[in-house]
Specification:
Chain lengths: 265, 222
């Protein structure tokens, strides 16, 4: 692929920019016509027209926030864009894509969600570190590499999982045969003796769609907010600030079998 | 590409090979490029470090004072030379007597007919953590600028002013006025800021290059 001078770059203006569509694989254009969008903080890179970005705590937006925003504890990471014009969104040069939901639900890793229309309701998922969108509307998500859609039953690598729609059964799956016993535990802890790094997967069954990114590099985790510390609430009362995996670093294979647990510590 | 004739004799031809490698075909002339960015060449090439970006003693002192430092080399010869820098996306800009404003860290190479210099940017530079000065490129010819992810080129005209996040801004070209907008309110200090507290507004006539990524800057956090 060689580009010769003369062809030049494509120069966009508000007329040629797409409406609620990708400008290129890494940049998404949203058109606002007196409407509103929820954005993750700091993901706007440029806009034409007149727009206002308000933190979720803004009084005028209370009604909107009440109807479409249900993760109060991570509200400070979100802003509402309102006004009219065209706005470009991007996230650290990751691939961005928009998805349409129609009377549906989709659960997505919190760091991957960039923006959504207020016709969707955002809720914290029961699964720590994930958010669920319910309703009809468009949302924009970032991923490291293009997104692949898969049908369950499927087992996926935890680092490649972006989210899932409609399937209610995400669960852990371990290759137990390889990880049991003291030696297995040591192997899982240290990687000595040949851990493949794939002993632990997420398993999905039932009808639905699973979204995967085409790399195993996680996007930095966005805090999804703590959940109330109540009995029966998964993740409730956990140490603050680690709702899931440490961002970016690959996990030790098989956290199930760490040594402390084996020795009853 | 309408290269003005009567300007120096041979003019190096810039072209992209893929989106992350710049190939320059040279016939005895010289181009300036970021120090150490050569990845391959064929033919005969000579590489010479340019102290102070080839802007003379005055330019060198200016750059030292303004902190807009840039280490350039001059590449002269016959053949093709390939440049790349840490797998950044490369964008070609052609200049016909107009001026390109670019961050020195985003400038990869400039053709022989271009001069580089420094200019004051004011608050914009401060808000994106790049200092108060920026690099200018002017003359006739081509320049290659780098971005994190392919740059989006946005036209600014009198009826369409543009507002840009300082962290995503990489360069602009043409007759543009820039003004600095601050959305800092009492809410920012309560931790409920809009996340876009600092913005640069461009008015006039020209184009602005933005990258699909934001540098770490204080503007991204408030």
């Amino acid at each position: 692929m060689t580009t010769y001078p003369g062809t030049g770059p494509v120069i966009h203006d508000p007329v040629t920019l797409p409406v609620d569509d990708n400008v290129n694989a890494y940049t998404f254009c949203v058109e606002l016509k007196g409407s509103e969008w929820f954005l993750q903080k700091g993901k706007m890179i440029a806009y034409y027209g007149s727009m206002e970005f308000n933190g979720i705590g803004h009084g005028r937006l209370d009604r909107l926030v009440r109807t479409s925003f249900h993760s109060p504890l991570h509200a400070s990471d979100w802003v509402v864009a309102s006004g009219s014009g065209k706005m470009l969104l991007a996230d650290r040069a990751f691939d961005v894509n928009s998805f349409d939901l129609e009377e549906g639900n989709l659960t997505i890793r919190s760091g991957n969600l960039l923006a959504f229309q207020p016709t969707l309701a955002l809720k914290q998922s029961i699964v720590p570190g994930f958010l669920t969108l319910i309703g009809t509307g468009k949302f924009v998500a970032a991923s490291n590499g293009p997104v692949v859609f898969m049908e369950p039953p499927i087992r996926v690598d935890p680092q490649a999982l972006v989210g899932w729609a409609d399937c209610p059964s995400p669960c852990h799956h371990y290759d137990h045969a390889y990880m049991t016993g003291l030696i297995g535990g040591l192997r899982a802890m240290t990687g000595l003796g040949g851990a493949s790094g794939e002993e632990h997967q997420f398993e999905f069954v039932g009808a639905g769609t699973v979204l995967l990114q085409s790399s195993e590099a996680l996007l930095a985790e966005q805090a999804a907010g703590m959940v109330p510390n109540e009995p029966g609430v998964p993740g409730g009362g956990g140490a603050p600030g680690h709702p899931g995996q440490p961002g970016g670093a690959p996990r030790l294979p098989g956290q199930l079998g760490d040594l402390q647990r084996r020795f009853g510590l | 590409m309408a290269t003005p004739c009567g300007y120096r004799h041979p003019v190096a031809m810039f072209r992209l090979q893929g989106s992350k490698v710049l190939a320059v075909d040279m016939t005895g002339d010289a181009v300036k490029a970021k120090n150490g960015s050569m990845v391959a060449y064929d033919g005969q090439m000579a590489f010479k470090k340019l102290s102070g970006g080839g802007e003379g003693v005055r330019g060198m002192v200016t750059r030292r004072i303004t902190g807009e430092q840039m280490t350039l080399m001059e590449v002269k010869g016959q053949g093709t030379c390939w440049f790349a820098d840490r797998a950044s996306e490369i964008n070609l800009v052609s200049l016909q007597g107009d001026k390109l404003f670019v961050e020195s860290s985003n400038l990869l190479a400039t053709g022989s007919g271009l001069r580089t210099g420094t200019s004051f940017t004011g608050m914009r530079g401060a808000s994106q953590g790049n200092g108060l000065f920026t690099t200018t490129v002017e003359g006739h010819g081509q320049a290659a600028i780098m971005s994190d992810g392919p740059a989006v080129v946005l036209r600014v005209s009198s009826q369409y002013p543009l507002t840009v996040d300082p962290g995503a801004y990489i360069a602009h070209q043409g007759d543009l006025r820039q003004s600095f907008q601050s959305g800092v309110t009492f809410r920012t200090f309560l931790g409920e800021g809009g996340g876009e507290a600092f913005q640069i507004r461009f008015e006039g006539d020209g184009v602005v290059y933005v990258q699909p990524s934001e540098r770490n800057s204080i503007a991204g956090d408030v």
